[in-house]
Amino acid sequence: MKRLILLSALILAPTVAAPVLARPPAPVAEDRRVANMVAFTRLVGYVRYFHPSDQAFHEDWDRFTVRGMAAVEDAPDAAALAERLAAIFKAVAPTVQVYRAGKVPDLPVALARPKSAVGVSVVSWRHHGLSFGVAVDPKVYESNRERVPLDDKAPKPADVYRADLGGGVACAVPTALFANEEGTLPLGEKPPTGKAVTYAAIATEWNVLQHFYPYWDVVNEDWNKDLSMAFREALRARTATAESESVQRLLAHSRDGHGYFSSTKEPRAFRLPILWRWVEHQLVVTAVAPEAAATVKVGDVVTKLSGRAVAEAMALEMDLVDGATPHWRRVRALQELSRGDQNASLALELNGKKAVTLKCSLPRAADTLREDRPARLAELKPGLWYVDLDRVTDKEFEAAVPKLALAKGIVFDLRGYPSHIKWDTVFAHLSDQVLKAPIFRSPVYTKPDQKAATFEEGGWTIQPRAPRFKAKLAFLGGEATISQAELWLSIVKGHKLGEVVGSPTAGSDGNIVFQNLPGGYRVGWTGMVVLNHDRSRQHGIGILPTVPAAATVAGIKAGKDEVLEKGLEVVSK
Q: How far, in whole angstroms, is CA 279 from its chain's centroid?
């Protein structure tokens, strides 16, 4: 009975039509595919290297080329190829035209000469060899996107470059474009603005440090909490400066002496014509440029900055700057307080009564203003030599080696940064033994949140070289001694080459990693772990002196360098 019911159900069930399947597209012949790829290749070269639009200049061409190839390969005919090429290049080259061969279209309106030349220029490429997008010596080859006034001598955007791309398509590529102060015309889609950009900068910044900053195990910070605080601060920000500070302050919580922050919105490319230091709980002027000599003297004590007590101004700035130690953050805060746009003014109160106003007149990178020090390589007393490793060069040092080999005592100054001399140039003469660098631990990350991170250890050695210096040695260091300068002092202490005279150093060494953020920000951080020779921690501690010494306000006013004097005393014994 059940079998009959089932059979009748099948007989009475409505008939269901079989689905109609779309016919698969006919396979594209190999010759057509090759022609498509050839056409795309030619157009990429024309646009990438000769079309001067802002959009093309900033494009990631490796990524673009991969995507473009995938899009054009299977175009079935010339019409489809022209359509696809036009669509692919529209965003990076809005005035470039792609069309069926023989069907030349009218030029875009944007290539017509404007009625007024006011505020209009012409942009085009000029290649001396090629240096755009390749690693070459820029002194040999140059690629420049030149901007010239709109006049009769300027290139004419309407003089487009026409070429047959093959595959039945052709192109018209402008090699010059009109531009105004905002960019090449027509203007591309403007990037997003507003707080979303700041939020994105915070997100990117937090992520790169969360996954690739190797010192979270020794930094006493709740990085997850810091992220929420940064977003909260950005939400409440009412000015562009406040938004920028929310990004900068998050970086400061990484507690890294290499923590680097810059913003295209606030370049602050100039600095005051004075140098100052925090000495005996006071802000003391230690050097003065000629243009400020009439109003400020070495030894003056700054008591107020723009009407605010110095201690308060420093505390606010120290909250924004990054550093592994409080004394390095203080150094960085004082650097930032002295910087601004060109001719920006800063009101100072000196010695509790005298008010002066100084302008940021020195370029930020200028190396013309220094605290008073001896010549970079000098015999200060018979048999006692001074070498400023911040200023001396390899050539100067090597020329002085015969004299230094006869010295009774040598003071090496590492209170700056050894920019012009290699470590082996010096250390090769300081020992009969092979010297080792500190321990470098390069992290290897395979999982998020630094889970299962491993480290590859490395380093390098310095071979001894004659003549061997027999002099007693002292090395000066202090709160402004950081990174490579700390590496030098680590070698000194690790191999007991001499006394370290001064105060604790900044506490940050190792190569720096940089990351661009949305909104024109750029950050940097220490990318590897550096340990002392005995495997003890260096980050956040620094190199501690074996002979403590510090400047005093009275000594600065008297023109003394008390740390150097202590170094000379040490090597004189």
A: 31
Shared-domain flag, residues 483 and 338: no
Query: What does the H/E/C string look like for 496-552?
Result: CCCEEEECCCCCCCCCEEEEEECCCEEEEEECCEEECCCCCECCCCCCCCCEECCCC
Which of 303, 329, 363 terminates a domain? The answer is 363
- Among 331, 363, 395, residue at a domain's last position: 363
The 10 Å Cβ neighbour count of residue 239 is 8
| Same domain assignment for residues 294 and 171 | no
Query: Is residue 89 in a domain?
Result: yes
The CATH number assigned to the domain holding 294 equals: 2.30.42.10
515 and 408, same structural domain? Answer: yes
Answer yes or no: do 328 and 383 share one domain: no
CA angle 419, 421, 424 (to 5 degrees): 130
Same domain, 278 and 153: no
Dihedral in degrees, nearest 10, Cα atoms 225, 230, 232, 237: 160
Residue 432 one-letter amino acid? D
What's the rounded Cα separation, in Å, for the pair 169 and 164? 6
Contacts of 345-350 with CB under 8 Å at 24 or more apart are: 346/272, 346/305, 346/306, 347/304, 347/305, 347/306, 347/307, 348/296, 348/302, 348/304, 348/305, 349/302, 349/303, 349/304, 350/285, 350/296, 350/300, 350/301, 350/302, 350/303
In this structure, is residue 226 part of a structural domain? no
20-29, 457-466, 530-539, 564-573: lowest mean pLDDT where?
20-29
What is the helix (H) or strand (E) element at residue 62, kind and residue range? helix 61-72
How many contiguous H segments (helices) and E segments (strands) does the chain have?
Answer: 15, 30
Q: Could you read off the pLDDT of 329-346 as tens digits, one per residue?
A: 999 999 999 998 888 899
Prediction pTM value:
0.75
For the cut 70, the answer to whether the pLDDT of residue 451 exceeds it is: yes
Condensed to tens digits (0 to 9), the pLDDT of residues 456-506 reads 998 899 999 999 999 999 999 999 999 999 999 999 999 999 999 999 999
Is residue 132 located within the same domain as residue 61? yes
Q: What's the number of domains the chain is made of?
A: 3
368 inside domain: no
Residue 355: domain span: 270-363
Note the residue count of the chain.
573
Residue 180: predicted pLDDT: 92
Q: Which tens digits make up the pLDDT trace of 375-406?
A: 999 999 999 999 999 999 999 999 999 999 99
Q: Is 74 in contact with 28 (CB distance < 8 Å)?
A: yes
